[in-house]
């Protein structure tokens, strides 16, 4: 296979060298390629998300609802269990939950809501509902940014038919670029990417059969976002 | 995938006679463009984002070797493996070898056009491994052994009755009394079937919408979430991607994502956009133990720097299909291979040969709508002309066409000859067509008069002759 | 700029296009009238034939170049070159320069010609800024945006603005006015069944507007659409926009015999 590697890179170099004379060489940016990787810069960012804190959260809610998510606001993390119980009851869903370890007891006082039966860990496909924690929300399109990790397993985002996501209002940013910057600051030495970063915009859907839009194709049929208004440090 | 591209005329005739296909295509080509228009109307920066997206890809292509090496280094740092493959055969071998090493019996698959391009399913089946497509549309056409008819809506050509028949035929456990009348019931049936496959799979094979050189991440975009179940449950995740999918940074990927879904389905953003970086981390509760990226050339380096260079900017959004009046008339299967529409007509001749795919670049009015809507501003009509030029140079253009062109060009270069001929022909046709003003039939004009009348020329002679005789017109 | 001084009239070389020359000379006369009414000095070089598009779109670049050289030669020396066709004007404006990309002698001449070449309607509206047309037309018209006019030459608002000056005319828009009619030059005879499906969609769209007249700026599209309208038994009148703008509508519409027009006019 190293022959293939050399051949491919050789062919690329030869083609680019030849094209250099034909005017196909890079004229589109003055930033050299290595600088571009060393110091990643944002390109054009739409103005839509550039708003004050309150308007930003409002935009996030509008966009998420536009994408068929449901949104609720609570004043503090301790209010999350009651909201989740309300949501499940309203939709006639079983009161059992698999929650991400990062927001299990004691981060969120689940046991206070006695109707709920709560378990923590990853999903295996048997769960009816899951709760996980967002790293950020993007107002621009009502998108949640989820990071994988021991505190927040990826399978919770996709296997259960109902997915509840907890996010603090202060974690809602205007645009995606802001969340990338925050992620870079969080990591060390260029190793800032978790195994999976999942942007989630509304519940799963398909229109593959006669272009009829149906929710809950493979992933969750319901996405419920609980925004916590109180300033809370990320877990 | 066997190509039927050479039988384009037969494929076309079949497609044009299919009333159900016509309804499906009409729905698709109304629905997606309307949603796209709405999404764009909400985003004043859309055209500027297209420029930015194009510039990113131009920059990448001009520095492709650097970015490929950087991507590889980051994948390895994250604990993954990169397999460089020159050809479809090498990619098939690399994937099969990885599956076998993993002891795989079942491979779940996210939708991948490169997977179609290298016909990986057939190859795995031949070697006793069961590939299971998990995108709903792709799953349906896999059961039916058909190629996709649209790059983002692969089963667009099928009615719900056809899907129901397919499930009854292939899902052995299905009780005959089970109703499959509605799309919801069909989805539930497929979801249940595929859940078992997701949980039991040994390897997950996905494509990639982008590869990020900065982080060694691969980007997956879906609405169903099937790709996410494909990589997060099995022990091994294999990614198959062609070289040109690379972008420099997360910010660059973000810019392209802003135009991708809006161009494709008119969504602001697809439901699931995933950035996978390497295998499971030490403390992770889920995720694959192994992460492989199969980096495929298959003709891409041959396009680099040449007349099809800009085609390497393509992000497979399908906007050119959704807006193409020819695609709307004939659908995807008529193109006879895995790609279709304007992007297919440009790509296919390069991948399976101009001899085989000679019709595709010609079956276009060069109306320019595809270039107009392309988020990456790819000059598709220019490239269709380039293929026509190469056909002409290789004498693959049909003899009657060549002879006709030659004759016309000999005349067009000699104004005196043109004038002489024009005056005679116009006089004859005008006289013949005088009574009705048009012809229902004329010798040698069958292609035209099969479906249309041919207007007769105005009486009195050609414009140039009349003008130079001092006429001012309108003397009816 | 040459010819832009107040005393010297603008000189225009009319590239009439082969289809107009052969099939519909009235469009040529209408074009001459429109340009002269707007104060231009119009010439019609005898040495013109075809812009070379059939050869170009068939991949025959050597023959296209040979034809293009003749056109370039015939049209040097005018302030502007105007064609009553977005397709032929687009050929000269966009494709001639690339055809001679590697020809140091011809390339500057092709580029110079390209810079002076305009499609008629946009020339009237954008360059001559024609505002008070004296034309009248009794009817409800719909306008088909030909692909080349729209996408190569940027013609969209100009024909609407000019048609708004025509007395007695109502303009109604077809929802798919920007969709290709399926003509495509040789495409329509090479792939008649696909072309047929496309022109049928176009005809459906036009009929649904209840317009009694179809106008456009390209004779190729008009012949295609008129041919299909007639075959389907429609009596929608089809004309090049120049005929209406110039008030030269005495000739019967495209594809109609001279005798047939009279009774309809009396009836209408």
Short description:
The complex is a heterotrimer of chains A (235), B (476) and C (268). Chain A is α/β, with parallel strands linked by helices. Helices cover 28% and strands 22% of the residues of chain A.
Structural account:
The complex is a heterotrimer of chains A (235), B (476) and C (268). With 235 residues, chain A is an alpha/beta fold. Chain A has 2 domains: 1-32, no CATH class; 49-228, NagB/RpiA/CoA transferase-like (Rossmann fold), CATH 3.40.50.10420. Chain A contains 6 helices and 12 strands. In chain A, a hairpin with a 4-residue loop joins β5 and β6. The longest helix of chain A has 20 residues, at 2-21. Chain B is of the alpha/beta class and 476 residues long. Chain B folds into 3 domains: 1-38 and 318-397, no CATH class; 43-302, NagB/RpiA/CoA transferase-like (Rossmann fold), CATH 3.40.50.10420; 399-468, no CATH class. Chain B contains 22 helices and 12 strands. Chain B has a 6-stranded parallel beta sheet, with helices on both faces. In chain B, strands 8-5-6-9 form a 4-stranded mixed beta sheet. A two-stranded antiparallel sheet of chain B has the order 11-12. In chain B, β5 (210-212) and β6 (217-222) form a beta hairpin. The mean pLDDT of chain B is 95. Chain C has 268 residues and is α/β, with parallel strands linked by helices. Chain C folds into 2 domains: 11-125, Rossmann fold, CATH 3.40.50; 133-267, Rossmann fold (3-Layer(aba) Sandwich), CATH 3.40.50.11810. Chain C has 14 helices and 8 strands. Chain C has a 4-stranded parallel beta sheet with strand order 2-1-3-4, sandwiched between helices. A 4-stranded parallel beta sheet of chain C has the order 6-5-7-8, sandwiched between helices. The longest helix of chain C has 16 residues, at 192-207. Chain C is globular and about 55 Å long. The N and C termini of chain C lie far apart (48 Å). The model of chain C is unreliable at 261-268 (pLDDT under 50). Chains in contact: A-B, B-C. β9 (196-200) of chain A pairs antiparallel with β9 (272-276) of chain B, so a sheet runs across the interface.
């Amino acid at each position: 296979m190293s022959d293939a590697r050399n051949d491919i890179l050789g062919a690329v170099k030869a083609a680019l060298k030849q094209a250099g004379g034909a005017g196909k060489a890079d004229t589109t940016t003055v930033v050299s390629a290595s600088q571009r990787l060393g110091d990643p810069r944002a390109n054009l960012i739409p103005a839509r998300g550039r708003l004050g804190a309150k308007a930003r959260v409002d935009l996030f809610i509008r966009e998420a609802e536009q994408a068929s998510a449901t949104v609720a606001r609570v004043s503090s993390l301790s209010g999350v269990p009651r909201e989740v119980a309300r949501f499940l009851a309203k939709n006639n869903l079983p009161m059992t939950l698999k929650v991400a370890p990062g927001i299990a007891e004691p981060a969120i006082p689940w046991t206070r809501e006695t109707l709920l039966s709560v378990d923590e860990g990853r999903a295996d496909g048997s769960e009816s509902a899951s709760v996980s924690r967002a790293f950020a929300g993007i107002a621009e399109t009502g998108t949640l940014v989820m990071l994988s990790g021991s505190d927040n397993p990826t399978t919770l985002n996709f296997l259960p038919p109902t997915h509840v996501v907890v996010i603090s209002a202060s974690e809602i940013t205007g645009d995606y670029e802001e969340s990338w910057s925050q992620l870079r600051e969080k990591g060390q030495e260029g190793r800032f990417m978790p195994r999976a970063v999942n942007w989630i915009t509304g519940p799963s859907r398909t229109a593959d059969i006669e272009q009829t839009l149906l929710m809950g194709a493979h992933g969750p049929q319901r996405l419920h976002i609980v925004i916590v208004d109180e300033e809370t440090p990320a877990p | 995938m066997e190509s039927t591209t050479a039988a384009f005329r037969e494929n076309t005739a079949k497609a044009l006679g299919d009333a159900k296909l016509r309804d499906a295509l009409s729905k698709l080509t109304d629905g997606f463009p309307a949603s796209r228009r709405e999404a764009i109307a909400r985003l004043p920066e859309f055209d500027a984002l297209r420029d930015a997206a194009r510039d990113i890809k131009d920059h990448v292509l001009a520095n492709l070797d650097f970015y490929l090496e950087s991507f590889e280094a980051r994948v390895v740092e994250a604990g993954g493996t990169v397999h460089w493959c020159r050809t479809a055969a090498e990619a098939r071998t690399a994937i099969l070898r990885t599956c076998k090493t993993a002891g795989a019996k079942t491979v779940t698959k996210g939708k991948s056009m490169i997977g179609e391009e290298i016909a990986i399913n057939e190859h795995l089946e031949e070697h006793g491994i069961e590939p299971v497509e998990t995108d709903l549309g792709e799953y349906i056409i896999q059961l039916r052994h058909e190629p996709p008819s649209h790059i983002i809506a692969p089963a667009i050509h099928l009615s719900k009755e056809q899907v129901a028949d397919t499930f009854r035929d292939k899902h052995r456990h299905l009780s005959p009394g089970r109703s499959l009348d509605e799309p919801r019931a069909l989805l539930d049936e497929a979801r249940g079937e595929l859940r078992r496959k997701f949980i039991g799979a040994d390897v997950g094979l996905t494509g990639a919408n982008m590869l990020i050189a900065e982080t060694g991440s691969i980007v997956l975009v879906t609405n169903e979430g099937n790709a996410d179940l494909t990589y997060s449950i099995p022990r091994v995740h294999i990614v198959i991607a062609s070289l040109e999918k690379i972008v420099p940074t997360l910010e660059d990927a973000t810019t392209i994502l802003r135009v991708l879904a809006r161009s494709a389905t008119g969504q602001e953003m697809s439901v699931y956009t995933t950035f996978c970086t390497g295998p499971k981390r030490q403390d992770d509760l889920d995720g694959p133990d192994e992460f492989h990226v199969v980096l495929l050339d298959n003709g891409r380096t041959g396009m680099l720097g040449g007349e099809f260079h800009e085609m390497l900017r393509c992000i497979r959004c399908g906007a050119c299909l959704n807006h193409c009046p020819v695609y709307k008339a004939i659908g995807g299967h008529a193109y006879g291979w895995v790609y279709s529409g304007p992007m297919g007509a440009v790509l296919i001749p390069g991948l399976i040969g101009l001899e085989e795919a000679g019709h595709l670049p010609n079956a276009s009015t060069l109306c320019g709508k595809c270039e107009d809507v392309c988020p990456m501003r790819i000059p598709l009509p220019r490239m269709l002309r380039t293929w026509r030029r190469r056909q002409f140079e290789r004498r693959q253009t049909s003899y009657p066409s060549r002879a006709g062109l030659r004759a016309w060009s000999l005349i067009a270069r000699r104004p005196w000859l043109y004038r002489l001929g024009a005056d005679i022909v116009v006089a004859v046709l005008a006289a013949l067509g005088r009574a009705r003003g048009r012809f229902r039939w004329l010798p040698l004009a069958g292609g035209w008069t099969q479906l249309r009348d041919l207007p007769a020329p105005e009486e009195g002679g050609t414009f140039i002759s009349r003008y130079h005789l001092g006429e001012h017109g309108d003397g009816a | 700029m040459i010819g832009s001084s107040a005393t010297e009239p603008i000189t225009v070389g009319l590239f009439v296009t082969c289809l107009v020359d052969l099939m519909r000379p009235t469009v040529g006369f209408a074009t001459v009238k429109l340009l002269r009414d707007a104060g231009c000095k119009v010439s019609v070089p005898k040495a013109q034939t075809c812009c070379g598009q059939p050869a170009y779109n068939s991949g025959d670049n050597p023959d296209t170049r040979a034809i293009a050289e003749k056109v370039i030669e015939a049209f040097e020396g005018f302030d502007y070159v105007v064609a009553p066709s977005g397709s032929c004007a687009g050929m000269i404006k966009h494709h001639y320069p690339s055809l001679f990309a590697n020809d140091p002698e011809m390339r500057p001449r092709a580029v110079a010609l390209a810079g002076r070449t305009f499609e008629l309607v946009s020339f009237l509206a954008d360059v001559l800024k024609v505002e008070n047309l004296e034309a009248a037309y009794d009817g409800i018209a719909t306008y088909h945006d030909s692909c080349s006019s729209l996408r190569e030459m940027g013609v969209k608002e100009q024909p609407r603005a000019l048609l708004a000056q025509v007395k007695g005319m109502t303009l109604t828009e077809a929802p798919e006015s920007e969709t290709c009619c399926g003509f495509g030059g040789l495409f329509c005879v090479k792939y008649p069944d696909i072309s047929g499906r496309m022109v049928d969609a176009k005809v459906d769209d036009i009929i649904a507007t209840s317009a009694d007249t179809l106008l456009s700026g390209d004779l190729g599209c008009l012949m295609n659409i008129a041919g299909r309208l007639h075959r389907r038994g429609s009596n929608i009148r089809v004309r090049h926009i120049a005929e209406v703008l110039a008030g030269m509508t005495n000739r019967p519409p495209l594809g109609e015999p001279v005798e047939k027009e009279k009774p309809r006019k009396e009836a209408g």
